[in-house]
Design brief:
Layout (H helix, E strand, L loop, with lengths): L4 E2 L23 H9 L13 H7 L18 H13 L19 H6 L4 E2 L17 H17 L5 E5 L1 H13 L1 H4 L2 E5 L1 H16 L4 H7 L5 H7 L6 H26 L9 H11 L6 H10 L1 H16 L5 H25 L2 H17 L3 H16 L1 H4 L1 H8 L10 E2 L5 H13 L12 H24 L13 H16 L24 H8 L1 H12 L1
Parallel strand pairs: 3-4
Antiparallel strand pairs: 1-3, 2-5
Helix pairs in contact: 2-6, 5-6, 8-15, 8-16, 9-10, 11-15, 11-22, 15-16, 16-17, 16-24
Length: 538
Amino acid sequence: MHPGWMHEYEPCARPVREMTSVSLPICSSASERRKTLHDVPNPVIPGCYISARDRQKSRSLSSITSIASLQTPSDHTAEDMLLIWRLGRLIETSQLLDMPVNEVVLPGFSAFCANLTPQQKSSKIGYLSLIPASPTDPAVLKEEMTRLVKTSHALGDQWTIITGDQTTYELALTIREKHNDLFANVILLLGGFHLAHNYLKAIGKIMRDSGAEDLLVTAGMCREGTAHKIFGEKADYYQSMHAIRILSEAMWRLYWDAFETWVAEEDTKQWKEPIEAVLLKLLENTPDRTTQLLLIRESHTQLMNLQDHLEKFRLSLEACPTAVFWWNFIEMSDILHRFIYYQREGNWMGHLCESARMLPYLTATGHYKYGQQSLPLYLFEMKQLPESAPDVHVAFMNGAFVGTRADGYHNGVSPDMLLEQTYNADAKEESGLDGITLNVAARTKWVYTKPITAAISAELKSMLHLNSAHPHHESGPARVARDSQMVLKVMAAIETNPFVTTTPNLINITTGQCAEPTVKEHLLHVRKIGVKALSDSL
């Protein structure tokens, strides 16, 4: 089992311990060294019985009165950043924005944010020893939770913060409720990486057979098999994220093209000039990131005014099923973009806001363990933190629910992603578990020495300044040019702009096939279907 993640959420005085010398047994021969490995006993884990009734009780939604009680307002910073970035990416083709010709091309959204936001210091990551057993075994998970509580107490912390995927989160809820005397001060977080990955799969299920796969293949982004995988249940996270970003940007540009034709000139006066001034400053490519970020925040009113006009245009398309369907895709993609933005910035309220917006889509696409079980419970508990654990709430508001592997910009990730990037990544390296899983002695050696070797490695990296900030991988000239060209290729693969078509049918934008009436009804109202199913379960 992987170790749980415990995040130290506040600085406190640590007990000072004197370093004492440690003597290690020295084996004279290889045979003796192998023997010592075979003689390592497995840890004795006390039993923990969890009945079906215990599980059912812990995942009950009876305490949640309505969907509205799970919603959290955000500060709209992600909306502003996403909109100004999109406008900056299309100025060369826009007929509405009066901008001079500029050779500077804005990088991808994550790199754009990294170029504007303040630097974040790296987190201190410590490895706990593995338990060679299944993490879904209640006894194993209880033992791991006990170890984490003891570790946090040894460090002088009152609260223990543990993050897990949906399966371990749900089981940990049950264990905490049944053994509340041991885990009363345990706060459980639902892993942001696993949540985003499942939401990606939900988007893929809704968009399957819509023509999206064919667009990616025609544009040369991937082959047919990979395209079907991206929109399937076994989608790779990074591959799917890249495809969704390219496809959503291409569709938003087509949406903007249709908007430019629709909008009246007098409606643009309130926002056009201020936004153009901000874009000019962004395209100067100046290192003064503070001024650029301040300009974006000061243009919030104008950006919201533009958002209102874009919303009015969307409402004018309600009689066009294909336009509605592809706007729904943009909206679902925007939730994902904003969710990741708030994760990387350590914005707690934004994280809760976008998590709640995922609920209807997860529910409608059959991800009921997230949509109708774990995620509502998670959101409900987190909204109670100001009263139940005010210190933890303050720490989360300061960004303590995410961590960073290195000094850098816009690089916060959830603890379950950190686990993937550290422990799991180490296990797949040449010196990891790959190739030795059938060798009991070698596997045992790796399991019991990994926390020590990882600590030594971390100290060496710190001494050699290997944790310093590096440019974002999406900001390189070759990557920027490649992504920009790919967006244009996807747009070129679409014969008819879906936001100007007037057909009463929902059509596949590459084959022209019409969806059946029942399928059309479900796809156009997927959010309403999810909201109703979720409301019925409360």
